[in-house]
Each structure stands twice: as C-alpha cells, then as structure tokens.
Specification:
ten-stranded mixed beta sheet; Arylsulfatase, C-terminal domain; four-stranded antiparallel beta sheet; alpha/beta
Length: about 475
C-alpha cells in the first residue's frame, strides 16, 4: 500500500461535522440496498488480480482470536485505564483498529455462527441466542430443534475452516465452541484437523465443568481432564500446535475469558479445587483480561520465533458487548441487547505487508465479514457460497474508501424479540415492540430518540427489515409451527 493510500485512511474520522462525517464514513444518501460496494476501475481490478496471484504463491497464515464478553472499552488501546493489555495493544500499533465493528448477535452462539459461515445466523435457523447448558434451546425454534437433536451448526453448512482446508491449510480450533453439544456439530465436522476446548458457553476456569456439574472439556472428539486455568490451557494448546503445524495454517483461538464465572487465575484453592467466584468484582475481571492478554502475547511470540509473523494475518475481536462485569464505555446497553453496548465490539487486524500500521478504520463491519475477507486474503474462492458478509480487504488495505451499507440484527431469547437495522448513520431498534430511531453520527450513546421526528425513515427501515427477515428464513425451520399454532 502506498503512502497516499495510508494517508487517506488516517484522515478518516468518524466524529466530525455531520456533512463531512457522511462523506468520510461512506454514509451516502442513496436508495436503499443491502450494501454499496464501490465499483473498481480497470487498474484496481488488475491490481486485485495481481494481489490474488501473489497470495496464491505464498498464502498467508491466519490466526483468529476471539474473546468472550469483552467490552468495547476493556482494552488499553480502546481507552481503558484500569486494565493493561500491552500484547493486544501491539496488534493495534502494528495494524488496524476498528471503530465501527459489530457482532452479528448480542450473545455467543449467533455471532460465532456468522463468524465461521460468513452469513447471517438466521439462515441456519435456531441459533439466534446462546445454546443453553446441556443442549437446551432458549426460544421456540431452538427448543423445537433441541427436541429433535438438531440444535447446533449443521455439518452441511460451508464454513471458513472447511474452505481453507480444501485449499491446503492446516486448521485447528482451541477454546470455546458453543455451536452444538452433539457429535455431529463438533469442530471436527466443520473442517478442523485438531481441536481442544469446551463444548458449551462457559465453564469453571479450574474444574472445567458447567453449572450442572457436567465436564465439557474435549480434545479431538474425546473427553479429557486437565489441571490448570482454562485460559492458560487454551493458549498452551494453541502454541503447541503452532510449533508442529505446517504452513499455511488457520488457527482459531476462542478464549472463554472474560466470560463468567469471574475467577482470579491466582486464587486457586487446593481445598476446593477451584477459585472463588467474584461476580461484579472489577479487579478480578481485570486480572482475567490481563491473563488473556499475556496468553495472546505467547501466541504472538511464537509467531515471531517461527519467523511467521510477517506472513500471518492476526485478528482479535470480542463476540459481543460486555455484561455488567465489563465496560462498554459511553455506549448504551450490554450483552443481550441490540443497543450499541450489546453489539459494538473491539476488533484489531494485523497483516504487515498489506495493512497500514497504527491506523483506524471506520468502515462499518460485522463479524460475518471476516470469512469472505480472510478467504480473499488467502486467495481461496468461496465454495459455491453466497456470503452476506463482504470482502473488506480493498477498504482495509486503502485501495478503496469506506462504503455505506445496510445491516440487520434479530435476537430471540425466551419471550424477548429484539430487532435492529442500521443504514448509514441511521439505526432503528425494536425492543419487544418499542421503536427507537437514532442518528449515530451525532448520538452514538443512543440518547435522543428521533422516531417522532422521522416517520418516513422509520417506515423505510421497517420495510427493509421486513424484507430481510423474509429473505433469511432457514430451510430447516420450514416445518416448524409455534406452540400456539
């Protein structure tokens, strides 16, 4: 990337005057559409083709690291003052920091589904909230699937690891899975050569058991018992695999930290075999995040030792906003909501030969964009998949300006029905029937409801939302009928 392109990215600022902000953030006043990928010139097309050929000659390694329930203001590089994260901050100083990155859902399972498939999780069906402990569905369709032994990500779904493996990548998954308890949904069915971690959403950090006492720690389809703090075990397995792996490789590290239970890595009690649970205790939460940062540092150090850092794309992000233990800064809401605090997440990406160092990107991004972006970076064509996510590499590398798009959310849990749509700077949230409209360029805290002043915008966004819901109906739910039907 040339200096002119890097300078262009550095000039972008999300918080500017409204007129300039619309231009710089790519928020154009255009007719409604799902997104507006800008047209490429002939020169840019040739450049992209050349880049693809170069990538094919030496495919980059990919390391994808996901934190669990980490808030948008829980990292030093995002302004946090009471938690020190020097290793994660290295990714920001050597790469891109995203200011407008969103989780596809406000909880674990939906976001991870979108992350690995590159599509809205609604297309799979039944995964619009976290799978409950012991394979429990938490809303009508999920309960229906669980009763049939079908609650999870089907092996028939094309996934990022499977597509990478088909093109010669070694693949591994370490940490939290949360995409199905039954064997037909396990990582080995989705293109991972090796895996280690927990099947469900969380576990005691020392006993590795869920709240019902069940042991959920597995390695390569077999239950295992290990001693140690779960964050440490996940990182140790990841580093060990890196030492043995051939290039190119795809390493997916899904830490359980800092998800509950809130347990200090240094408070292990031999008498109980675990550590006290300190819900709502910020200092303990901080130590959990700092331990995760240390382990991220171990992974980065191993890439350096192997001489692979320059040819490795490293992505770090959270799966949703923080719960009350963490911090979403000034943003409204938390995990489980569709306000900014529930879905705006930290995200960092480093790829030294291609991405600028120490810069911000204000491109509106969803977790489902990572699959097509990483596949494009690796020169891997999608396997007959029509992604909902977008290849953002042209924008992130500075070859294109950020563009405007329309994106959607829907969250179901119990009787809760929450929906949202963002088009440019406008965001409509429907929370159990109540509608609020916000213009995020001037109101990212979502404090000023403009629903009464903008009836035409409300109507247009609701029309788009209804059309989207119709378009993402899951085939496997065609025979589902609500209990009241």
């Amino acid at each position: 990337m040339n200096k002119k392109a890097a300078a262009r990215i550095s000039r972008l600022r999300f918080h500017s005057s409204r007129a300039r902000g619309h231009k710089r953030a790519g928020i154009a006043r255009r007719p409604a559409a799902l997104y507006y990928p800008p047209a490429m010139t002939r020169r840019e097309l040739l450049s992209a083709a050349a880049g693809a050929l170069a990538s094919a000659a030496r495919q980059p390694n990919i390391v994808l690291i996901v934190a669990d329930d980490l808030g948008s203001a829980d990292l030093s590089c995002y302004g946090c003052r009471d938690i020190r994260t020097p290793n994660i901050d290295r990714l920001a100083s050597a790469g891109l920091r995203f200011t407008q990155c969103y989780a596809n859902g406000p909880e674990c399972t939906p976001t991870r589904t979108a992350l690995l498939t590159g599509r809205y999780q609604q297309r799979v069906g039944g995964l619009e909230c976290a799978i409950g402990v012991g394979d429990v569905g938490r809303y009508d369709e999920a309960i229906w699937l669980a009763q049939r032994g079908q609650l999870g990500l089907p092996a028939s779904e094309p996934t990022l690891p499977r597509m990478l493996r088909a093109r010669g990548y070694a693949t591994a998954c370490f940490g939290k899975w949360h995409l199905g308890y039954r064997p037909q949904f396990w990582p080995s069915r989705h293109g991972f050569d090796a895996w280690f971690g927990i099947l469900g959403g969380n576990a005691d950090y020392f006993t590795h058991t869920e709240d019902d006492g069940r042991r959920v720690l597995y390695q390569d389809d077999r239950p295992v018992e290990r001693r140690g703090y779960l964050t440490d075990l996940i990182a140790e397995e990841a580093v060990g695999w890196l030492r043995r792996a051939r290039a190119p490789f795809f390493l997916y590290v899904a830490f359980t930290a800092p998800h509950t239970p809130i347990q200090d890595p240094e408070e292990f009690d031999p008498a109980t075999g675990t550590a006290p649970r300190r819900q709502g205790h910020r200092p303990t939460y901080a130590r959990m995040v700092e331990r995760m940062d240390t382990r991220v540092g171990d992974i980065l150090a191993e890439l350096d030792r192997l001489g692979q850092a320059e040819n490795t794309i490293v992505v770090f992000l959270s799966d949703n906003g923080a719960d009350p233990n963490g911090s979403n800064g000034i943003l409204r809401g938390r995990k489980g909501t569709l306000w900014e605090g529930g879905i705006r997440i930290p995200c960092l990406m480093r790829w030294p030969p291609v991405l600028p160092a120490g810069k911000l990107t204000h491109q509106l991004t969803l977790t489902m964009d990572l699959a097509p972006t990483l596949l494009a970076a690796g020169g891997v064509p999608p396997a007959k998949v029509r992604f909902d996510g977008v290849d953002l590499l042209p924008v992130l590398s500075g070859r294109r300006e950020p563009f405007s798009r329309t994106v959607f959310w829907r969250y179901k849990r119990g009787d809760n029905r929450r929906k949202a749509v963002r088009r440019g700077a406008w965001k409509l949230v429907i929370d159990d029937g109540r509608e609020e409209l916000h213009e995020l360029l001037g109101d990212e805290r979502e404090q000023r409801d403009l629903a009464g002043e903008q009836p035409a915008m409300i109507a247009e966004l609701k029309r788009l939302l209804a059309a989207w819901e119709q378009s993402v109906q899951a085939p496997r739910l065609r025979t589902f009928r609500p209990p009241s039907a």
